[in-house]
Structure formats: C-alpha cells, structure tokens
Amino acid sequence: MARKLKVFRTAAGFHDAYVAATSRKAALAAWGAERDLFARGAAEEVTDPALMEEPLARPGEVIKRLRGSAAEQFAALPADRPKAKKRSAKVEAREPAPVRAPKPSREALDAARDAIDTAERAWRKEQREFAERQTALDRERRNATERHEQALAELERAKRRAQEVYDASVARWRETR
C-alpha cells in the first residue's frame, strides 16, 4: 500500500519551498538538502489545507511561493545595516578574484526523478488494473463453479431416478422368469 503524502516547507531565499512527499527524508531529497533541515528547525510539516493544495497536486515537485511583497521584505531588513566602506587606491592594484564555477544544474536529476515518478505511477496503475481483472476472474470462477455444482447435483438426481427405475425394472424382470 502506498504511503500517505505529507506536505513540508522550508525557506529558500525570499521564497518558501513546499514539497509533497511520503517522509521527511524524501522531502530533504527533493530540496537537494545535504543536512537535516528538520533537526535544525529550518523545515516543517504543513497542515494548512490552502498551502497543501498545490504541492499535493504535484507530488515530489518543489513548489516555490514568494514570502511577502518586495516592500515587506525590504521593511524587514535591519535599520542599522553596515555601510559600505570606501575603497582606497591600493585596491586597484589587487588581482581580480578567481571566477567561481557556476552551480551544477539539477535539470538532469529532476528529469530522472520525474521519469522514475512517472514509471512508478504507471506501475501502480497497471497493478490496480491487474487486481481489478483478477477480482473479475475470481468472481467469474465462483459463478462457473456454482453453475457446475448445480448442474452436477441435478444430473446426480436424474441418475438416481434412472437407477431406481432400472432397479425396479430388473426386479420385475426377475420375477417373471
């Protein structure tokens, strides 16, 4: 039996990332998390039906929702932010920082996971169809067995009647000899 889906949420920048999964471990895998965000208090299970609707419609897929408007996000920044320092002329003499490689793309991984999910859904559907056909065959077998047993019982009664008639005829025949 398939496990029930739950909806989990974690912060992802200015967004909340939601995912419908069967377990916390599956949610962490969907988010690509390397550490247990639940143990750190950075992720939680969602029980609000309004927030659960879209993730449950697309299980395993990470759904991002913007947390507040841009104005609300700027208003939440601390008022005493450190000010940028002025650069001295000596800074110009520095070598440029090495260019960092871009973060690897998750596209192939997501496509592979989607393919697995699609294959699993197809397999579960096929198993349900097998079960339905098996139930129909079992019902058909029971009905055929009942028909056979009824017909056999009727034939047995007819045989008994024929045996009685035959036995009586043989008895009469012996008396006439």
**Structural class determined from secondary elements:** alpha+beta
Report the radius of gyration as a whole number of Å.
38 Å
The N- and C-terminal alpha carbons lie at a distance of 78 Å
- The beta-strand count equals 4
Can you tell me the residue ranges where pLDDT is under 50 for at least 5 consecutive residues?
none
Q: What profile does the largest beta sheet have?
A: 4 strands, antiparallel
Beta-strand share of residues:
5-15%
User: Helix-strand pattern, N to C?
Assistant: EEHEHEHH
Explain the layout of strands and helices.
Layout: E1 6-12, E2 15-21, H1 24-31, E3 43-46, H2 49-57, E4 63-66, H3 70-75, H4 107-175
Task: Give your account of this protein's structure.
There is one protein chain. This protein has 177 residues and is α+β, with helices and mostly antiparallel strands. The chain has a domain of 69 residues. 52% of the residues lie in helices and 12% in strands. It has 4 helices and 4 strands. A 4-stranded antiparallel β-sheet has the order 3-1-2-4. The protein is rod-shaped. The mean pLDDT is 86. This is Cell envelope biogenesis protein TolA.
